[in-house]
Design goal:
heterodimer; A: 184 residues; alpha+beta; Heat Shock Protein 90; six-stranded mixed beta sheet; B: 119 residues; Glutaredoxin; four-stranded mixed beta sheet; 4 helices; 4 strands; globular; binds adenosine-5'-diphosphate; binds magnesium ion
């Protein structure tokens, strides 16, 4: 991927597919480290499944379609000297607390660091595509940033009738985020 | 600061007008947004469709939707157009520029652009 924000979009799509009703995307930046954490309350994965999805070329996967999203995200992190982890609880084993947390750290000064890129565009794209049954809480914190978007609050304001994917609403969200990032 | 009051104003403006629950439009533009699509540049293509459809005031009849892998990864970004009165048209190797043209000529003008479909 050319931008980490595209990896974030791609990983969050897994949460959508997993039937989540709430997705959290949290970015925490210090001077030289970026931490990305994507968590959901979707169906989760078994331990074996988690092992399989992080190593796409492992033999037990030859009969299945090989997903590349998680391996690409992991690689983007590890190539900067960062760390990657997935912790998941399947709905079978944990009927009341299932979900997945995918997180990675990135050393921003490393030569192989991929820039974050158009995070606003990726968040808006995610909201456009995630449908009306999912909520998103997005935060981005650093010394100079304190960005927060909670679609539950937006839906409350919009009432039940107007979907978040309405073009005018998406434009509002984009402008809201821009202001939060002090981009004008 | 963008305020929730502004969002409430959008709500009041749209109220009653919104028949556009997802996927109910007569025309559907479906963009492949799996890993392969995203990596190949599907996000700006999707955004171009969303913006052009809104600009053209077609949001009532045209929905722009995302889907997973369409299965032809080497042709990404892939976009499918479904219109009630014609067969599905599959556009391949899409760009935002091509998206503008598709909205203009195909969605509005009713003439699919053969050049951008799969050979
Ligand atoms: N958040 C999640 N919740 C449940 N299952 C997940 C999640 N993320 C990934 N998975 C599982 O891991 C598989 C591999 O994910 P990924 O590498 O992104 O490839 P793909 O999405 O193309 O299958 C998914 O198909 C899904 O079964
Ligand atoms: Mg995926």
């Amino acid at each position: 991927m050319k931008e980490l924000s595209l990896n974030i979009l791609d990983i969050a799509m897994n949460s959508v597919t997993a039937g989540s009703t709430l997705i959290n995307i949290d970015l925490t930046e210090s001077h030289d480290i970026l931490e990305i954490r994507i968590s959901d309350n979707g169906c989760g994965m078994s331990r074996e499944m988690v092992e399989n999805v992080t190593s796409p070329f492992c033999t037990s996967r030859t009969t299945r379609k090989v997903g590349m999203g998680i391996p690409l995200f992991k690689m983007a992190s590890e190539q900067t000297g960062g760390t990657f982890s997935i912790v998941s609880k399947s709905d079978r084993e944990f009927p009341d607390s299932h979900g997945t947390v995918t997180s990675a750290t990135f050393l921003k000064n490393h030569l192989d660091y991929t820039p974050l890129g158009d995070i606003i565009g990726s968040i808006v794209t995610l909201i456009q595509g995630m449908g009306e049954n999912i909520d998103l809480i997005f935060t981005h914190k650093s010394d100079t940033l304190d960005v927060r978007l909670d679609t539950r609050q937006l839906r409350e304001t919009l009432g039940g009738e107007i979907p978040l994917s309405t073009p005018d609403v998406l434009v509002w969200i984009k402008e809201f985020l821009k202001e939060n990032y002090n981009i004008t | 600061m963008k305020s929730l009051a502004e969002l409430a104003a959008i709500r009041d403006k749209m109220k009653g007008k919104v028949s556009l629950r997802e996927g109910t439009g007569e025309t559907r533009i479906v963009v492949g947004m799996a890993t392969c699509g995203i990596a190949a540049g599907a996000k700006p293509v999707l955004n171009a469709f969303v913006e052009e459809v809104a600009k053209a005031g077609l949001s009532d009849s045209v929905s722009v939707l995302q889907t997973g892998c369409i299965g032809i990864c080497q042709y990404e970004p892939v976009v499918e157009v479904y219109k009630s009165d014609e067969e599905k048209v599959t556009y391949v190797h899409m760009t935002p520029e091509k998206a503008l043209e598709v909205v203009e000529k195909h969605i509005k003008g009713g003439k699919p652009i053969a050049e951008y479909t799969m050979k």
